[in-house]
Specification:
The chain has 15 helices and two strands. The chain is mainly alpha-helical and 392 residues long. The chain has one domain. It has a two-stranded antiparallel ribbon. It holds the Pfam family FTSW_RODA_SPOVE.
């Protein structure tokens, strides 16, 4: 049987250094942190109107400040307490209660019950739930990946993702539900699932898609999918956003139209250009060269996350880092895909660029947790790691 990613990672030259003792010293991957700065600036410049009202620009600066505080605060935490099953199950129960509470206590905004309104600000619970799903799957697979070939572990892990997936989908928040599914699928794959079971997963996915289409999806969600298949059939209706987005991306050509000169976004032909379609607005103004630089910065972030994951003290930290990388890659893939017309419009933000506090704080919280784990990632004795790897 081929070795899993975890088996390869544990032989990637990790030195069994002695446990670190002492206070809460700050241990930050500055390459990772500084790679986010140009992305944040790109988002700010793209959403800045330069004239008149700058609501999104000003509020985003506040959210960035809050996200930085969360990042550095989490960098000081010792997250080994999250390895305790009772802690994770308590957090899972709270998260499910909050998601259910959205249907009972919350009023619909644009047809969706996705937000908790606190007056001065709002929170979208589905964003931090993504981190919780990663933590639970990391805990589950960290003790069971050796026997992951057993289909029951695929099904049990699927249950942990399926419950929040359904509750988020019913809000309805199709974009976040897709990300939760991709997180589960990605973590199952890196845990060493067999090819036949992977094929079974895809067959179940096809069956689930059929059931969702028949009994769950609302008419406007079906319209988005049908518009994806035939994008030019309704460019004044359901396909308008995707059509304008592809025009914006294509019109950027090689060097772009220049900052502030994007006609599709600045003249409001492209709706939601500060959030869902910020990639199209950025590509229109910065062109192909700007997009290449953008992807390079995303690549640096993913690389640093994976590099930190490989040096994890145990399987839990390794899998958590892998899950965070999968979360970022899923967001990027889905957002860019819908901006260039390759995927249906799902309302998925682009990491670090799109306006919004919930997703931005969640992203920096995940990175901050990785930094907190980095503080003790070299502290494991080889025997301790071997025991957890073997589940004894």
């Amino acid at each position: 049987m081929k070795p899993s990613f975890l088996e390869i990672a544990k032989n990637f030259g990790v030195s069994p250094f002695r446990p670190a003792r002492g206070g809460r010293s700050l241990s930050v991957d500055w390459t990772l942190f500084f790679a986010t700065i140009p992305l944040l600036c790109a988002g700010l410049v793209t959403m800045n109107s330069f004239t008149g009202d700058n609501y999104f620009f000003e509020k985003q600066i506040i959210w960035i400040t809050a996200a930085f505080l969360v990042f550095f605060m989490f960098s000081l935490f010792d997250f080994r307490f999250l390895k305790r099953t009772n802690v994770l199950m308590a957090l899972f129960a709270i998260a499910i209660a909050v998601l259910i509470g959205l249907f009972v206590l919350n009023h619909a905004v644009k047809g969706a019950r996705s937000w908790l309104d606190f007056g001065a600000f709002s929170l979208q619970p589905s964003d931090p739930v993504k981190i919780l799903v990663i933590l639970i799957l990391a805990k589950y697979f960290s003790r069971r990946h050796v026997e992951i070939a057993h289909i029951k572990h695929v099904l049990i892990s699927g249950f942990y993702a399926f419950v929040p997936f359904v509750l988020v989908l019913l809000q309805p928040d199709f974009g976040s539900a897709v990300i939760i599914f991709l997180i589960w699928l990605g973590m199952v794959m890196v845990s060493g699932i067999s090819k036949k079971h992977l094929a079974g997963v895809f067959l179940l996915g096809v069956l689930a898609a059929g059931l969702l289409w028949s009994f769950v999806f609302k008419d406007y969600q079906k319209d988005r999918i049908m518009t994806f298949i035939h994008p030019l059939t309704d460019i004044q209706g359901a396909g308008y956003n995707a059509y304008q987005s592809t025009i914006a991306v294509g019109s950027g050509e090689t060097l772009g139209k220049g900052v502030g000169y994007g006609t599709q976004s600045r003249l409001r032909f492209l709706p939601e250009y500060q959030t869902d379609f910020i990639f199209a607005a950025f590509a229109e103004e910065w062109g192909f060269v700007g997009v290449v630089i953008l992807f390079a910065l995303f690549g640096v972030i993913i690389w640093r996350v994976l590099a930190g994951a490989i040096l994890g003290v145990s399987n839990f930290e390794i899998l958590f880092g892998m899950g965070v990388a999968i979360m970022f890659m899923s967001h990027i893939m889905v957002n860019v895909g819908m901006n260039i017309g390759l995927l249906p419009v799902t309302g998925t933000p682009l990491p670090f660029l799109s306006y919004g506090g919930s997703h931005l704080i969640t992203e920096f919280a995940a990175l901050g947790m990785l930094q907190g784990m980095r503080r003790y990632n070299r502290a494991a004795h080889k025997d301790d790691t071997t025991h957890e790897f073997l589940g004894i």
